[in-house]
Amino acid sequence: MRASLLQIAVDPDESVNSRRRRVASLVREQTGVDLVVLPELWPTGAFAYQSFADEAESPTGPTYEVLAKAASDAGVWVHGGSIVERAPDGTLYNTSLVISPAGELVGTYRKIHRFGFDKGEAVMMGAGEALVTVPLPGLVLGLATCYDLRFPELFRGLVDAGAQLFVVPAGWPARRREHWTLLARARAVENQAYVLACGTAGTHAGVEQAGHSIVVDPWGEVLAEAGAEEEVLTVELDASRVASTREQFPVLRDRRLGLANPPRK
Fold it and tell me: What DSSP character marks residue 258?
């Protein structure tokens, strides 16, 4: 599998519609790639809380429409990062979209762990309640978003659901960049899975972004890492690497707490 992470810069002077069109053009350029990944809340900016309500949309709204056309034009799977979703009852969610090469919406994930403690996303948005996996040819995606990266039990649940590759879009602050790379590698090592962690560049509502999108293999080796600016990071993934790592070093088999399979006798 060949994957491209689009580390998008969010410029407050660029309108949401202009950014949608620009990002769709970048997706179209990824011909020959199997999977394209976008960052968290790239249409609005992850820290632009004052814009969330005004820019909220349905999962099949304008962001989906431009990405679906781009996915179809390029013939690629697209993990659309995330959008501010407005549910029918008015609740806002931080929601990821997965789009097939035919332009079909094949998966959505509402972020379970909301960041902000007592402000921002944590009080403005509802929490997702479901673990989500999406099967692609060759690998099963497990979906998580940004702050979710700090909660290993979510990723272990995704492994139990069959995940072999975690896709983690984010709007991660520059001041905690070391945590970003450390946690991405930890989630890969402990679950023996690929991690594709795609962040944003630029500044969101005064918060400098970390950038440094990263791809980690099931042994914890960093296959590629971006810098701090807008960048396209493309990498080859060996689907057989997950199974071989788990077979050669069968640590998951020795679990005792939250064990999915019965213990050995």
Answer: T
The reported pTM is 0.95
Residue 229 falls in the annotated catalytic set: no
Residue 124: Cβ within 10 Å count: 17
Residues 75, 55: Cα–Cα separation, whole Å: 28
CA dist., res. 80 & res. 48, Å (int): 18
On the question of pLDDT at 265 being above 50, the answer is no
CATH number listed for the domain at residues 2-254: 3.60.110.10
The pLDDT tens digits of the residues spanning 147-163 come to 999 999 999 999 999 99
Domains of the chain, by residue range, sit at 2-254
Q: In the annotation, is 231 catalytic? A: no
Q: In angstroms, how far is the first alpha carbon of the chain from the final one?
A: 38
**Among residues 85, 111, 121, 198, which one is catalytic?**
111
Residues 212-221 have pLDDT tens digits of 999 999 999 9
69 is catalytic: no
